[in-house]
Design goal:
The protein is built from twelve helices and nine strands. By secondary structure, the protein is an alpha+beta fold. The strands form three sheets. The protein has a five-stranded antiparallel sheet with strand order 6-5-9-8-7. Strand 5 and strand 6 form a beta hairpin. The radius of gyration is 25 Å and the shape is elongated. It starts with a helix and ends in a 5-residue tail after the last helix.
């Protein structure tokens, strides 16, 4: 019965990976933000890795092929790490940091060493069993040290991202979502660090290393999938400061505003005239739409439609801004927009704006 435990855990993790990646991809399809796709891809690669391991468990008559699949599993698991790092980096800033490239090089070397390191394969009760990863350097197994370093670094980056998110949101529901996301991811990384520290000190059996690490991974994925099903907007919570939003008609009349700071409130009439004039000049002279204005340290992100102009004020520019504003404009422009807007239409505009911008607003 004990020999079946690895198979049961592998199957559970595969199912959890499928559910989690489906939840993430569902969120990705709404705005198609690249960082979320990378996170989804990391979970898919993890799923493929565990499928490889599960297949290897049944190859009792071909241990060499089983060993190859286990080594491929070792490689893929580690190579999912830089994709998670990329998701973190592109959530914090529009472009990856230098740390991402350094971490990617390190994990590529680590994954290669892990895939080519020492590995024991045997058959027990009709199931192929394997030993944990080992990378021997001067008769010392340095695998636990490398895994502790890789996981600790990535966990530190995720914690940093989460604290940046928490510092910019005020909505209790959003704060709860960020904390749950951090908790779900931290579980598996802390477990990996603890398990490898215990292994390094010889305080845990080799068989328990695999079981413990995979069990905590399963728990983490279950929580993560539940979080993204309940809070699909979580991936759009960016570490930015939103100074407000104004919706103008195409001729420059402001028709809706929300979360607008006092400093900007008084300048809306002037800003309205400037934006309207610049839009006309830009489209005439350059034959393209104006996308951004900088006002001191504040960026005005613009999306110009045929009937309305969306203007989001923020301190940091992300590609996702244009996509969300495009969605908003497309929805608003299905309504009757004229010089005189009825209260009914204004209420519909309010619902569209608040629903579409909810992920970005604090």
């Amino acid at each position: 019965m004990l020999s079946l435990i690895p198979i049961i855990i592998d199957v559970a993790i595969i199912i959890a990976c499928i559910v989690t990646s489906a939840a993430l991809f569902s969120s990705y399809k709404r705005v198609r933000y690249k960082s979320l796709l990378l996170f989804t891809l990391a979970i898919v690669i993890l799923c493929i890795a565990f499928i490889m391991e599960l297949i290897g468990r049944f190859l009792v008559n071909s241990l060499s092929l089983a060993e190859s699949l286990f080594r491929l599993y070792f490689f893929l698991v580690v190579m999912s790490f830089p994709l998670v790092f990329a998701w973190v980096d592109l959530t914090r800033a529009p472009v990856p940091s230098r740390r991402f490239y350094i971490y990617s090089i390190f994990t590529a070397i680590f994954a290669t060493l892990r895939a080519t390191g020492e590995l024991g394969v045997s058959v027990e009760n009709g199931i192929v069993q394997r030993t944990p990863s080992s990378i021997t350097f001067f008769d010392v197994n340095i695998y636990p040290i490398l895994m502790i370093f890789a996981t600790f670094w990535l966990l530190a980056e995720i914690i940093h991202m989460s604290f940046l998110q928490l510092s910019t949101v005020r909505n209790p529901s959003k704060k709860r979502a960020v904390r749950l996301n951090l908790f779900a991811i931290a579980i598996v990384f802390i477990a990996l660090i603890v398990v490898n520290i215990l292994r390094l000190g010889g305080m845990i059996s080799e068989s328990m290393v695999i079981t413990a690490a995979n069990l905590f991974l399963f728990i983490s994925l279950i929580i993560l999938s539940a979080v993204y099903v309940k809070y699909p907007y979580l991936v759009y919570i960016l570490p930015q400061r939103i100074h407000g939003f104004v919706l103008f008609t195409s001729w420059g009349t402001p028709i809706f505003k929300t979360h607008l700071e006092k400093e900007l409130e008084s300048s809306i009439p002037l800003l309205s005239a400037i934006i309207s004039a610049l839009v006309k000049v830009t489209e005439t002279v350059f034959a393209e739409s104006l996308r951004m204005l900088q006002i001191g340290n504040i960026y005005a992100i613009l999306h110009i439609g045929s009937k309305v102009i969306s203007c989001l004020f923020t301190n940091k520019v992300f590609p996702i801004h244009q996509r969300i504003l495009e969605q908003l404009n497309n929805s608003v422009e299905t309504l009757e927009i004229s010089e005189t807007i009825s209260n009914e239409v204004r209420e519909k505009i309010k619902n569209i704006v608040e629903g579409t911008l909810y992920p970005l607003l604090p």
